[in-house]
Design brief:
Length: about 425
């Protein structure tokens, strides 16, 4: 579809990579799945759809760099618990009762929430193959999918999960909004021998890796007891960092851990709401940024957050570190915005395609209504995204050049059906 967005405030890249983002009034032109022009219309352009951008702001679609979408129906079911009690005492028993269809509807609910708050791409670790991918394909969302891997050495269970990853990837090759990574779950569910196998598989299959690392004190203590090293050191020595790597959490890390991450170009996803709620602490985001580590933002799953609103996470990541570091300049709104857009795209190896509003990139956009009390007056839109926006300001979403949300109404999903099905799931599971 050819779409013209007229007379709109747009957040555009600076003139250089490190320059601040620019906010200026302009017109955008979309041809097919890509941004064809900014400012003047392309030659012979004929709009099939024109969007009036008066009193609106267009931003690159937000990128949720770590979540578990299938958990969306579990929100508010496992609260005020220690991490291990949360995981093994409450969440795992629910997962054992889940069906594949449950996972599908959970992913639909997650996509609904993310889309309505401006997210156009997410990086997911899931356990029911074909279900999140099915929801992504049907909804028009963009996603990177990782089948959670658990294994001990070259045991049958680990091999089955690896094979499921490849089967899912091959089944959805026709959808270019879907890409795939290997997803070893964590050092406490994957032993050293299995992690070495995953590293070799990633090299053979030319795939990136997404893994939970250094999330809790208990994880660190057990890793040191079992392997004589930190989880970051374990990942390095098993060869995992030889591939594009996304490390989720990295809350409990040392100075030398950060040096290892910087050395290998590892991207770190901070999940501030989840990490606080589970009592795991605060990731040393300012220190990682100072070392040149690519830091991006995730929500984690709704069972631990309990929301999937990346605008809320942007607010947390700025305010938390200003408070803990006692520095009002620490983690600026500009930096948080980059974390939620281009940094996330870099982590997912999608920065050539999305993460910023540039000619030739995919038209993955969120349009916010500025005539809202939280956004008015329009003094600094980028600051507003971190300090006053709630996510409800998102009016329109375009993904891959297609309208998926218009005037707050989802065009690609049956919202009422999603509410009905997910309520039924929890009634059954209890």
């Amino acid at each position: 579809m050819n779409i013209a967005i007229k007379n709109i405030l747009a957040v555009l890249p600076g003139e250089t990579t490190d320059a601040p983002q620019q906010v200026k009034k302009t017109d955008l032109y979309i041809v097919g799945s890509r941004i064809a022009a900014i400012g003047e219309a392309p030659a012979d352009f004929k709009a099939e759809k024109t969007i009036d951008g008066t009193d609106k702001l267009v931003i690159p679609g937000l990128i949720n760099a770590h979540t578990h979408s299938y958990m969306a129906f579990m929100r508010n079911c496992a609260d005020d618990l220690s991490f291990m009690d949360w995981l093994f005492g409450r969440v795992d028993p629910i997962e054992q009762k889940m069906t594949d269809e449950d996972a599908y509807w959970g992913a639909c609910l997650a996509i609904l929430e993310m889309m309505k708050s401006g997210t156009t791409c997410f990086n997911d670790m899931q356990m029911n193959i074909m279900q999140t991918t099915r929801a992504v394909k049907e909804s028009g969302m963009r996603a990177v999918i990782c089948r959670g891997l658990i294994g001990s050495g070259d045991n049958e269970a680990g091999r089955i999960r690896l094979d499921q990853t490849y089967a899912e990837r091959d089944a959805f090759r026709d959808c270019d909004r879907l890409t795939f990574r290997l997803g070893p779950h964590a050092p406490y569910t994957c032993d050293e021998a299995f992690l070495k196998i995953v590293a070799k598989e990633a090299e053979r299959e030319n795939m990136g890796i997404h893994m939970h690392l250094s999330e809790s004190v208990t994880e660190i203590e057990n890793c040191k007891k079992d392997y004589g090293c930190t989880p970051i050191e374990l990942a390095e020595r098993t060869g995992l960092f030889a591939r594009p790597f996304i490390a989720a959490h990295c809350v409990q890390i040392t100075e030398s851990d950060m040096d290892i991450l910087a050395k290998h170009g590892v991207s770190v996803v901070t999940n501030p709401a989840s990490n606080m709620k589970l009592g795991n602490g605060f990731a040393p985001v300012p220190q990682m940024m100072a070392k040149g580590i690519n830091v991006c933002i995730g929500t984690d799953g709704a069972a631990s957050n309990n929301a999937l609103n990346l605008i809320h996470e942007m607010s947390l990541v700025t305010l938390i570190h200003k408070g803990t570091q006692r520095s009002p300049q620490c983690v600026s709104a500009e930096e948080a915005f980059r974390m939620a857009t281009i940094n996330g795209a870099k982590a997912l190896s999608l920065d050539a395609e999305t993460g910023s509003i540039e000619v030739g990139k995919k038209a993955d956009l969120a349009i916010l209504d500025l005539k809202r009390p939280s956004m008015w007056p329009v003094n600094n839109p980028i600051a507003a995204l971190s300090y006053s926006a709630t996510g409800d300001e998102v009016n329109t979403v375009i993904i891959d050049g297609e309208l998926t949300l218009e005037d707050r109404r989802v065009l690609t999903m049956d919202e009422e059906r999603i509410y009905f099905e997910t309520a039924k799931i929890m009634e059954r599971i209890g």
